[in-house]
Batch of 3 targets.
Target 1
Amino acid sequence: MTNFRDVADEPSGGGRAAVTITDVANAAGVSASTVSYVITGKRTISPATRRRVEETIRALGYRRRGGAPSPRAGVLAVAVPPLGDRQLGMEMEFFSAAAGAARELGFDLLLVTDEEGTTGLHRVTSAALADAVIVLDAADDDPRVPVLLASGRPAVLVGAPGTYRGLTSVTLDFAPAGRACLTHLADLGHRSVAHLTPSAPRLRYLKGFAESFHAAAGERAVKAISQPCAPTAGDVARCLDELLADGGPTGLVVHDEATLPLVMGTLRQRGRQVPDDVSVVAVCSDTVAGRQRIRPTTVVVPAAELGALSVRRAVRQLDGGPAAEPGTVVPVLVTGESTAAAPAVREGAALSGG
């Protein structure tokens, strides 16, 4: 017979006795076995009963004990960024690959989508709804990290630079990509290039990209401009009108997949042909790149690789492995149809009869 008190957790504070599954069951008006099934997911429980048990777990501050291993729920939670801070193409690729990797390893995925970022994690970790947590777009000062540390559950931070002791991280090294973008356009003869950045730089790797971009511009004697640009039709129009007045740059690097289709559309509206008048390099998911009228030259964000790697890192910890060293993925530049020789280079070739 299962001893349901064995999965009770430590006191919630102040020397108070530990809350047990029996306490939760009595408060929720259900059996201890029902509470256990809600936690482990081993049996189907009606939505109403599940909600009542989960609310009781939160109200009583129940936590699973950190001593003996508790039954697995067979679930990995994935905490997504706030809704106003999303890159949907990347997330779709990430989730698809993560779901496939999880399925192969015998796990399901649970998305945590609350706006604050911490409430959902408190609910998932305190109610033992998931065995491990994957946090997307984690930052150095991310408020979700203390929740994970307090829970004691295995976690993988996607985007953090690996500064949290005991937590595994998977990060993107975009510094080589910044240099590759500038070098590609400089090799085509572009002497002025603009880097359109997110208006609020949520991308944690943006600094490394920008630094290497500008360093390469200095080495190649190319004028490099950084221009924040929000993913709205009005702001994109304003940015491009300012940049392209009196000639302006002949090369653009668009560093936000939500902004890319707006940039391409606005250039067409302004009578600027891509790549004849303006060359465009995109930093985006392969999904978004494939949706454009022409296939852009792209720094492809390897979201699928990140998804599968994150799941494997999480399950490795559940199987007794230590928190691994930070995993690093390096995006690469793939040449497409949106970049060509600068207009001045083509004109010079035409005049010389080349």
Target 2
Amino acid sequence: MTHTHRDHPDFEALRPQAVALRRAGLSRRQICEHLGALSDGTLSHLLEGEPPPKWTKRPNAKDNLRDKARELRKQGRTYDEIVAELGVAKSSVSLWVRDLPKPRKSPEAMHQMREARWAPYRAARDRAIEETKTEAFSEIGQLTDRDLFLIGVSLYWSEGSKSKPYQRRERVIFVNSDPGMIKVFMAWLALLDVEPEHLRFCVMIHESADVEGAERYWADLVGINVSSLCKTVLKKHNPKTVRKNVGDEYHGCFVVRVLQCADLYRRIEGWWSGIVTGASAPTATSGSGMV
């Protein structure tokens, strides 16, 4: 006849005790110490249906990694970022965090992604731009006096003060924010033998900008002392207007005024008319040139 572990003479009496000890958190070895020597099979039947206490369970080596992965996912990290940080398989990460909502990328992250995607193309474009500019620069070479003369006339007629048919004002006033334009205009006035004492300068700038810094900048550019500048013209700041001309590179506009200049102004008008007529007349070299 086959015997089972339930055939133990004290089985019915021992089971309630074994269950109570198990629920109290004792291990199998500790239960045997309380109940006396029991075979492994008998003890298993006495504890049938009773789970072992948590402290007796062997910990899962990846439980800590799983918790870290879930925390990183909640912070908005991608699968690849979690894999890189924890050094686990992507399949494991997917299993651990698949019940969590997919993180939405922040505007800053989206901007960084776009910048990274387009960076190579922008770099190639910038190189092409610089190559073209360098090539064009080399095509100019040294200017002759006639070159500078014609450039100066065109520059003034484009950017300088002009008389109107309904209001005759023969004044030579040049205003610009581009330091290169100011340099060329000053070189043109020197070519025309305009005396320095016949020149007056002032700065026009928004009141919210670095006024003193702008005054020093323009004075250094034309080689005069700041004290030689006329009173700076301040433009009232409008907080509702979003201006782009701000920051350290903003120096306002520089005004160059020539005194006793009626004759010079009339000549500028005549020179410009001559340029227009010369450009309109057909020439033997029409259609050829640098472009």
Target 3
Amino acid sequence: MVREDGKRNFALREANGDETSVFSGNTPRQAALKAARRLDGAGVSEDEADREEIRLREKGTDKVHIYEGWAWEEDAPDDKPDWMPGDITKANVSKQGIEHIED
């Protein structure tokens, strides 16, 4: 279901089928990037980051978007605002495919 602002909601699915969190974005990739930033065990660099499977079900549909995601810590830029911490988490994802849920 698309909201008035064009964003869609995606539920993060665990391996057992539980949906623990909801991320919104204009595209599934945008929601997957948000989910990837919250992965446990962010690496010290992009190359050393652990890859994990991220499964996002688009609310209102039977589509499950599957991504491989990873996150890492970097120093914040020098021109950062005062409220921003010194370290920031960056993430990247790679789409693996789409599945359809059968009830």
